[in-house]
Design brief:
Arc Repressor Mutant, subunit A, Jelly Rolls, 9 helices, 271 residues, 2 domains, five-stranded antiparallel β-sheet, alpha+beta
Length: 271
């Protein structure tokens, strides 16, 4: 499987998918970014989940809230049982203030089988099996809204994110990229700024993140430019603001990532 998947195509503001009682392969999960918020609930799983430089140990009834533009992927062993539901939602599908408050509560939640949030996700699956598409969409939105409200009501102190940083070196690299994204031009520049050889930087990042460091930087820049364009900035200005050295490279990178040219419509499939 390639390093990155294509962006999800939201229909009516939400893309949802389900995998129930699946026997998975270790290499079947794409490493990816997208510009929608992701709500990922695990019914049955044993493995790990990486979001940027954080790695979470997965267990049944875990919930991840992944903000737009965050690089993420799952690590499971071959022939592992896997059941989950995932929802990629646009900014207007659920109340924006509610989603913002829920996502500010944390990224990772151990819920347990008795949680009302867990029960609501189970109800979503039941309704998916029994209702027609139109009625299901109404119920799905209502239950996701309720779950966001329930997350807002959780005690942050009793539900701290439980994660490990990938390692000290790559955590430092990720911090450097966050703070210098638009001014990064080359692997040589990053290696010099971080006082490390190009080879060490390239291979260490690739091993930890499963993506080349320049591909990671390039796609972060594309996402940044996309957000500027969504906010009304013209593509011919956004490419400069996001750190691309020429429009041709930006155009090619944007089209490769989103599957369309910049400014031709949003990545949710709404032209």
């Amino acid at each position: 499987m390639g390093e990155l998947s294509m962006p999800v195509q939201l229909q009516g503001g939400c893309y949802s998918s389900y995998s129930l009682n699946e026997r998975c392969k270790a290499n079947q999960f794409a490493k990816h970014f997208h510009d929608s918020a992701e709500i990922l609930f695990m019914f049955d799983v044993q493995g790990e989940y990486v979001v940027e430089s954080r790695k979470y140990q997965l267990a049944p009834f875990d919930l991840l809230l992944i903000k737009p533009s965050k690089y993420h992927y799952m690590i499971l062993k071959d022939d592992t049982n896997y059941s989950r539901c995932v929802f990629n939602v646009s900014a207007d599908y659920l109340p924006n203030d509610l989603v913002t408050r829920a996502f500010s509560k944390g990224e990772f939640f151990h819920l347990g089988a008795a949680s009302q949030i867990t029960k609501n996700f189970q109800r979503i699956i039941e309704y998916r099996r029994t209702l027609d598409e139109r009625d299901y969409r109404v119920v799905e939105r209502a239950l996701l809204t309720e779950n966001m409200m329930l997350i807002c009501m959780t005690d942050a102190e009793s539900n701290r994110d439980e994660f490990k940083y990938l390692d000290e070196f790559n955590s430092r690299v990720m911090k450097y990229i966050r703070e210098n994204l638009t001014s990064i031009t080359s692997l040589e520049q990053m290696a010099a700024d971080l006082y490390v050889s190009k080879s060490t930087l390239y291979h260490s990042f690739k091993k930890a993140m499963k993506i080349s460091i320049m591909q990671y930087v390039r796609n972060k820049k594309v996402m940044y430019a996309h957000n500027l364009i969504q906010g009304g900035v013209r593509p011919t200005k956004a490419y400069v603001m996001s750190g691309f050295e020429d429009y041709t490279t930006f155009y090619r990178s944007y089209k490769m990532f989103f599957g369309r040219s910049p400014g031709s419509g949003d990545s949710n499939g709404n032209e």
